[in-house]
Design brief:
single chain; mainly alpha
């Protein structure tokens, strides 16, 4: 008998401890919210991924200097691209076309998903049916 079966049988009994306000107060705290979790630190405190270490803090002056160095580096890269014959207007045109392409592709993906749901199949099968490659 696995643990899932034992949970089902125990919870069907009338004396099953419940962790609601109407539950048995003497057994409160005995059950945890996720007793069969495979994660070890399920009840630990939340730790933000955006925490800044004390040693990582920089002064505003250092930050400005770093930003100025980055700006000079970008200006050099722009000058190099212009020397190679690239124009800003041309690059902006290509970027706009890429955005339009991505929007159209997203709509196509959405339609394929809906068709797949209606047919009861996967989008992968529809790709083969319509002669599309998965890399498209």
């Amino acid at each position: 008998m696995n643990t899932e079966q034992s949970v089902e049988t125990n919870c069907c009994e009338s004396n099953c401890p419940v962790s609601t306000p109407e539950g048995n107060d003497s057994r409160k705290g005995q059950l945890k919210r996720t007793p069969f979790s495979k994660f070890k630190k399920i009840h630990s405190h939340f730790k933000s991924p955006l925490q800044v270490l004390e040693s990582a803090k920089v002064s505003p002056t250092e930050e400005v200097e770093e930003l100025e160095r980055r700006r000079e580096q970008l200006d050099t890269e722009i000058a190099q691209l212009e020397a190679e014959g690239y124009r800003v207007e041309e690059l902006e045109h290509h970027i706009d076309k890429l955005h339009e392409y991505n929007d159209i592709k997203d709509i196509g993906q959405s339609l394929l998903g809906r068709i797949a749901a209606l047919r009861g199949t996967t989008t992968r099968d529809l790709y083969a049916h319509f002669g599309l490659e998965l890399d498209d």
